[in-house]
Amino acid sequence: MKITDIVSEIFEWERPGIWNGGHFYGPGRLHKVTVTTDEGITGYGWNGGTAAERPLGMFPGYVDYFRTLLIGRDPMDTRGIATDLGEKQIKILGPGGINTQVLAAINIACWDI
């Protein structure tokens, strides 16, 4: 089985202002990653919560970058993907932030497969 595509989608929706005693929460926000394979199997990964507080418009660019490194890879090789994209890309992109959150969503999508 091989990865044939990875797609990024951003969802935002209005919700009533929620007050938790220290912070008002604004609109609902979610980043979804879809990984498809040559066998027609699809996996989904998500980012929300604190990840949603980041500028979501940047997430698809990271997915585009990682897509070129993942096409043709076996999605079942989650350890190899995590090593290649996580540990090796940290040297280029840094150890945290949006790239780590996008990698987490990709990893979840591969496990979903």
How does this model look, in words?
With 113 residues, the chain is α+β, with helices and mostly antiparallel strands. It has one domain (3-112): Enolase-like, N-terminal domain (Enolase-like, domain 1, 2-Layer Sandwich). Helix content is 38%, strand content 27%. The chain has three helices and five strands. The chain has helices at 59-70, 78-93, 98-112, and strands at residues 3-13, 18-19, 24-25, 28-37, 42-47. A three-stranded antiparallel sheet has the order 1-4-5. A two-stranded antiparallel ribbon has the order 2-3. A hairpin with a 4-residue loop joins strand 2 and strand 3. Helix 1 packs across helix 3 and helix 2 runs antiparallel to helix 3 (98-112). It is globular and about 45 Å long. The model has no long low-confidence stretch (mean pLDDT 87).
Topology:
Blueprint: E1 3-13, E2 18-19, E3 24-25, E4 28-37, E5 42-47, H1 59-70, H2 78-93, H3 98-112
The backbone outline, from C-alpha atoms, is globular
Indicate the CATH architecture.
2-Layer Sandwich
What sequence of helices (H) and strands (E) makes up the elements?
EEEEEHHH
Strand content: 25-35%
